[in-house]
Design a protein that fits this description.
Immunoglobulin-like, 626 residues, TIM Barrel, 8-stranded parallel β-sheet, alpha/beta, 3 domains, 16 helices, binds calcium ion, 6-stranded antiparallel β-sheet
């Protein structure tokens, strides 16, 4: 993947056209003392700033190098912040070459955030249950920010699924108790950084300023309050980050620091999205290049993370948000498209400062080998070793659909779950993979299983009792249904009750139908139990090969054992419990208590009858029939 391969098709770069203002912008706008990495690179942006020389006079802070690039409106200044440097403000003085007055910028090094001596960042692990929502579609907590004058898209139209609907961070904050009531422990919002794009800016994946919360969602201070509020309620926060592409209105795209800041072709070239070219031993350079350098969409320029200034910018931005707001986890968008070496550098830099942080990448790919290439794995002799801790487990997502929608067979029905999990030997730690039944890009689970309530319960049970970090897209709890087209707008409906004058409020028991409450209660019972269950969160998994279409597995540790039995077939299945001797009898278990219903299954007659289309999650007990 040599740059020279595409250099011939690069646009001519005109640095004479400038939109830079004379005021100085520095990213990151402030930083911290006491970071493990003493290096900090300031991206300084102002008209003609490269004609100035910055100086700093603050004990412990030294300028190592002043980097000039092709565009005179930028300086990249390498600082060293020595251990023991005291927090405080200081002036960066910029001296011109001639008689111009010097410019100045007041920079601040803050003390690193701590709370009661313990770092407030907790990490996201298999102990968590993540709730995914799109803030524009969840709840409008502040109608004053619905339309922000000066933004490129000043419309709010709830009848149009491609328009903004007015939802915001305040709306999410207003419903944290609701979210928590379901047994959720972490909230993942789609990106809330500025998307000042002329259309379809609601989804957040076309970022125009990495350091700024979109004013239609709130502001940086409100985001900080949101994280603090979530933490005070025992909820963690996952931030959705995007390194592959930006919005075409991004300020540093409109005035690029260097020619190679983004990948450009002589005419619009879309990514092939065929990520397998990255590991395919038979791949062509051409396929690799278009995959990695093609644009994700027409209004989403593809960033060149091999540019070291850009790579540093993105990595520092990530650290900045974690330290500023106290984020617990990162969900990294389009993980398979950016430069792989850059991504490893990013993971390394984040884990150096925050070893507890949960990180998972979006890997919308086909096949276990393909998916595991992009995460820490046990392969040797591969062209690239990823350092990513976890992935969005699309392979288990596909397996779940097949398990519930296809008839039992050698490669179908519940065999799909069994075979897929048997492949876990390829992962360094499969418990860091994120499980899901659907998301904001996919058809709703309830529709995929043809609105079958029994299958829905099986899917939810699998989600909350298999290995990994369960993640649920908003609406699942009230059986939200629809099929997604390519734009996925059909599955990005407003949460009923989240907006002024909504006739129905599904945030309340009264607003949900009896049918919806049954789903809500099932899910909540299981998820709330899971929160304190060591077996379900961190225990081992043992699964048994399906024989007649059933699926039986155990989650267990030294403290407890949970037995999950499913029968997604239309016939009754009799289990001979002696088959599970090593998990039941050898442990002297004689019964199991259903987590959701409290009903007891006694094992004394060594047989369990599974009703057609049934599921049970049983906490095993030594109590027998007396
Ligand atoms: Ca609003």
């Amino acid at each position: 993947m040599k740059q020279s391969n595409i250099i011939g098709v690069l646009f001519l770069f005109l640095i004479t056209i400038s939109s830079a203002a004379t005021e100085i912008r520095i990213d990151p706008a402030f930083w911290w003392t006491g970071m493990k990495n003493p290096a900090l690179q300031l991206c300084i942006y102002s008209e003609g700033i490269s004609n100035y020389t910055p100086t700093i006079n603050h004990a412990g802070v030294s300028i190592l190098k002043i980097n000039k690039v092709e565009n005179a409106n930028y300086l990249f200044v390498d600082l060293k912040i020595s251990a023991g440097t005291l927090p405080g403000k200081f002036k960066i003085i910029f001296k011109g070459r001639g008689n111009e007055l010097p410019k100045s910028y007041t920079y601040e090094l803050k003390a690193r955030n701590k709370q009661d001596g313990i770092t407030r960042i907790q990490g996201v692990t298999s102990k968590d249950f993540i709730y995914l929502l799109m803030p524009d579609r969840f709840s409008n907590g502040d109608t004053a920010n619905d339309i922000v004058l000066g933004t490129t898209d000043e419309t709010v139209d709830r009848r149009n699924l491609k328009s903004r609907h007015g939802g915001d961070i305040r709306g999410v904050m207003n419903h944290l108790d609701y979210i928590k009531s379901m047994g959720v422990t972490a909230v993942w919002m789609t990106p809330v950084t500025e998307n000042n794009q002329p259309f379809e800016s609601y989804h957040g994946y076309a970022i125009t300023d990495y350091y700024k919360i979109d004013p239609r969602h709130g502001n940086n201070e409100l985001f900080l309050n949101y994280v603090n509020s979530a933490h005070s309620k025992g909820l963690k926060v996952v931030q959705d980050v995007v390194y592959n592409h930006i919005g075409s209105e991004h300020w540093f795209y409109k005035d690029k620091p260097t020619r190679d800041w983004v990948h450009q072709f002589d005419k619009f070239t879309r990514s092939t999205y065929k990520d397998m070219a990255l590991f395919d031993p038979h791949a062509s350079d051409s396929d690799r290049n278009v995959l990695s350098y093609g644009w994700f969409d027409k209004h989403m320029p593809d960033l060149n993370q091999r540019n070291i200034y850009l790579a540093t910018y993105l990595i520092q931005n990530t650290l900045w948000w974690i330290e500023y707001a106290g984020i617990d986890g990162l969900r990294i968008d389009t993980w398979v498209y950016p430069d792989l070496d850059f991504e490893n550098s990013l993971v390394k830099a984040v884990l150096l400062e925050y070893p507890q942080l949960g990180i998972y990448g979006e890997t919308w790919v086909q096949g276990i080998a393909n998916q595991s290439f992009f995460v820490e794995n046990n392969y040797v002799n591969v062209p690239f070793k990823s350092m990513l801790p976890g992935v969005t487990d699309f392979q288990l997502y596909y397996a779940t659909q097949d398990a519930l929608n296809t008839d039992f067979g050698w490669e179908s029905g519940t065999t799909r779950w069994y075979r897929m999990l048997a492949n876990d030997f390829v992962y360094k730690d499969p418990s860091r993979n994120v499980l899901f039944l659907d998301n904001h890009d996919l058809s709703r689970f309830y529709s995929v299983i043809k609105e079958d309530d029994n299958k829905w319960k099986m899917g939810i049970t699998f989600l909350l009792t298999s290995r990994g970090i369960p993640s649920m897209y908003t609406g699942t709890e009230y059986l939200s249904h629809n099929f997604a087209s390519l734009s996925a707008i059909e599955v990005r409906q407003d949460f009923p009750g989240g907006f002024p004058n909504d006739a129905i409020n599904k945030f309340t028991k009264e607003g949900r139908s009896e049918h919806e409450n049954e789903a809500f209660n099932y899910l909540s019972a299981l998820a709330n139990y899971r929160k304190t269950s060591s077996a379900l969160t961190t225990g081992k998994l043992m699964q048994y090969a399906p024989q007649e279409g059933e699926y039986v597995y155990f989650r267990y540790d030294t403290k407890q054992t949970v037995m999950i039995v499913m029968n997604p077939t239309k016939k009754e299945i009799k289990l001979n419990l002696n088959r599970y001797y090593e998990r039941i009898k050898s442990k002297k278990y004689r019964s199991g208590v259903d987590i959701v219903t409290g009903a007891i299954e006694f094992f004394d007659n060594e047989e369990m009858v599974l009703k057609p289309m049934s599921v049970e999650a049983l906490v095993l007990s030594e109590r027998g029939l007396e």
